[in-house]
Design a protein that fits this description.
This protein is an all-alpha fold. Helices cover 69% and strands 0% of the residues. The protein is elongated and about 55 Å long. The termini are far apart.
Length: 182
């Protein structure tokens, strides 16, 4: 019951940096229980309704890595929002972690969905977002042999787009990543 009260108070924080600061002051096991119990909606509100706080949101997500990998991956998943675009902020350590660690299959599928829908629905998709996605997809293919899984998902969900996205994926793999994530 006490943790419910603590969580309610924590989630009432208006700014993400205040929420992070409160989590940092808690015993790690309490902070872990609270962030692990956050619903998809609670996470989405914190990381996709950015309110000009991109740097703080990126830092907050990176902070979660050492507390709970499950919460980290769930928060990362919420950042792939077509309306908002890819989350850019801080030193992008959370993206570096995506590139240096094999990601859960659910997140890989979310990233593929973001890639296809973002570029299909947004003819003026930000080049920076596409470059960032390219770094992530390249890392997952080169470091963790995910190319076959990516193509399989594309083929099952988007058979008409498989050829063009397969070519784009090959381009990502062959190209240098413009950022230091990879």
């Amino acid at each position: 019951m006490k943790q419910d009260k603590i969580k309610k108070q924590l989630l009432s924080e208006h700014f993400i940096e205040d929420m992070q600061r409160s989590l940092e002051e808690m015993p790690e096991d309490v902070a872990k229980q609270i962030i692990d119990s956050m619903s998809e909606k609670e996470i989405y509100i914190r990381v996709s309704k950015r309110r000009m706080q991109e740097d703080y949101v990126a830092d907050y997500i990176d902070f979660l890595w050492d507390i709970s990998r499950d919460a980290f991956w769930k928060h990362v998943s919420a950042t792939f929002d077509i309306k908002e675009g890819l989350l850019w902020g801080g030193d992008m350590l959370y993206i570096e972690k995506i590139c240096k660690n094999e990601i859960p299959s659910v997140l890989l599928e979310k990233i593929i969905e973001f890639w296809v829908n973002y570029t299909s629905e947004n003819s003026e998709a930000y080049e920076m977002d596409i470059d960032g996605l390219g770094c992530i997809l390249k890392a997952q293919c080169v470091r963790f042999d995910q190319k076959e899984n990516i193509l399989k998902h594309l083929g099952e969900k988007y058979p008409d787009l498989l050829h063009s996205y397969s070519e784009q994926l090959d381009h990502f793999i062959k190209s240098d990543c413009h950022y230091n994530f990879y």
